[in-house]
Design brief:
It is built from five helices and six strands; from the N terminus they run αααβββαββαβ. It is α+β, with helices and mostly antiparallel strands. Strands 1-2-3-6-5-4 form a six-stranded antiparallel beta barrel. A hairpin with a 2-residue loop joins strand 2 and strand 3. The longest helix is centred in the first third of the chain and has 16 residues, at about 5-20.
């Protein structure tokens, strides 16, 4: 868990606002307070590498989805790709994205937001890049990538819902995520 107390509070506000502003159909499925995760539960269960479905759009507004490694750091997803990839061109032109992390029927984390490059080629690094790079090297190993040949993005969430039919019984790569006392 990398989130500060302030980041947990901000993430909880976002989760609450997202669910309360959702349509009746979604609220009937996620049942706020019963089948939603708190921010603290979310950051404890979404640790390490989480496979995400990342949705971008073409110039003509057509959706495109691809799989990426995602890392929840400081309340936002971090994803990477080759700067020559089609998704990198999409993100440069249209940074609005959606991502989903699913674990069978046990967990669904759905996020809409804006992708900001952390280490753009030829551009200034994002202030969070040095810490993020340290985390990624710990995760993948120092030789996991040619680090300056991959562009990483921080997806600043504007909407996020974290669903589980049994949040108290959900276990991630860490311990069970029982509600905080």
């Amino acid at each position: 868990m990398f989130e500060t107390t302030t980041e947990i509070t901000d993430l909880q506000r976002l989760l609450d606002a997202s669910v309360s502003g959702a349509g009746d159909h979604l609220r009937s499925i996620v049942t706020p307070g019963e089948r939603t995760l708190t921010a603290e539960q979310l950051v404890r269960v979404a640790t390490g590498i989480c496979t995400l479905a990342l949705a971008t759009t073409t110039r003509g507004g057509e959706p495109r989805v691809s799989g990426v490694d995602g890392h929840l750091l400081h309340g936002a997803w971090v994803v990477g790709t080759d700067p020559r990839a089609v998704k990198a061109r999409h993100l440069a032109a249209r940074p609005a994205v959606s991502v989903a992390h699913l674990r069978g029927d046990d967990l669904g984390i759905f996020t809409h937001g804006t992708a900001h490059p952390l280490n753009p080629a030829g551009g200034p690094e994002h202030p969070r890049w040095p810490e993020t790079l340290g985390y990624l090297k710990d995760c993948y190993g120092p030789d996991g990538f040619v680090w300056d040949e991959v562009v990483f993005y921080r997806i600043e969430p504007t909407w996020m819902v974290a669903y589980s039919p049994d949040p108290a019984g959900l276990s991630g790569s860490a311990a069970s995520v029982a509600p905080p006392a």
